[in-house]
Amino acid sequence: MSTPPTATVSAPEAPAGEAPLIPVGVLGARGRMGTEVCRAVDAAEDMELVAMVDERDWLFNVADAGAQVVVDFTRPDSVMDNIRFCIDQNIHCVVGTTGFDDERLATIAQWLEPKPDLGVLIAPNFGIGAVLLMRFAQEAARFFPSVEIVELHHPGKVDAPSGTAARTARLVAAARRTAGVPAAPDATRESDSLPGARGADVEGVPVHAVRLAGLVAHQEVLMGAAGETLTLRHDSYDRASFMPGVLLAVREVRTRPGLTVGIESLLGL
Ligand SMILES: NC(=O)C1=CN([C@@H]2O[C@H](COP(=O)(O)OP(=O)(O)OC[C@H]3O[C@@H](n4cnc5c(N)ncnc54)[C@H](O)[C@@H]3O)[C@@H](O)[C@H]2O)C=CC1
Ligand SMILES: O=C(O)C1=N[C@H](C(=O)O)C[C@H](O)C1
Predict the structure, then answer these.
(1) Which uninterrupted H or E stretch holds 121?
(2) Where does NAD(+) bind (predicted)?
(3) What's the gap in Å between 205 CA and the centre of ligand 1?
(4) Nearest CA to ligand 1 atom 16
(5) What is the 187 CA–ligand 1 centroid distance (Å)?
(6) Same domain, 215 and 262
């Protein structure tokens, strides 16, 4: 990707006899993830990067450029307006930005109701390894009385805990509830001498957030029982790790109307 990420680029043209390229717009194009997504879309043989939009650019560029799919890696405080705009413009959305709770998801599902052919896919993590870690954690959760999550990220990260850690905690908590496993025996905070010492409480699962220079995106799920522990760990050393998942989502979102959360179903999980 050599062009500076700002406004509208060219409209896509498919070579004769070949499937049309997917016209893709990127929101947050100057950010850490957006830059990498622009590069990946530009290099994908079945896609055309038609618009690169960041905070000060005109959002209508993505519509004017004919984007069929928009990829959003912006900020939790911008993303809802962006999704609303794309739905109004009949543009499918692939969203990696974090900050989604049940209320936000319900709002998006409502926005999609009058648009039965439109897809919005929101994934807290597009890394295949991270998705697998979440699945393995769900599987293991019912066998261990104790569970804690440690997420570790670069210091520029705007939110804490990470969207991935929050989702992992909720999935683990749900798996434990389904299996009738009681809350972790050490989850009580009443005797903490400093508030926060035991991390955030996400549905009874303690989640600890580390911000450290040199890191990209990492997560550990720690489980313990009498005389043994199980540690599941995933490391994204480079943002390239998210790109196969993002490109898969761009290809699939057009045939998956409605709201999809996570890329698990796209991976056959
Ligand atoms: N789902 C996943 O696999 C991953 C998700 N993320 C999430 O993606 C988001 C972005 O992360 P980074 O790229 O590290 O942040 P960043 O701060 O480097 O980039 C965000 C970019 O969005 C731009 N922006 C803000 N509001 C905008 C708007 N309304 N329209 C267009 N552009 C706008 C900013 O100017 C900035 O360039 C975060 O929520 C992060 O947690 C990050 C990595 C992987
Ligand atoms: O901000 C990041 O970097 C990341 N954000 C996502 C999250 O909050 O889970 C995904 C990954 O952890 C990287």
Answers:
(1) strand 119-122
(2) 28-33, 55, 96-98, 123-126
(3) 27
(4) 31
(5) 33
(6) no
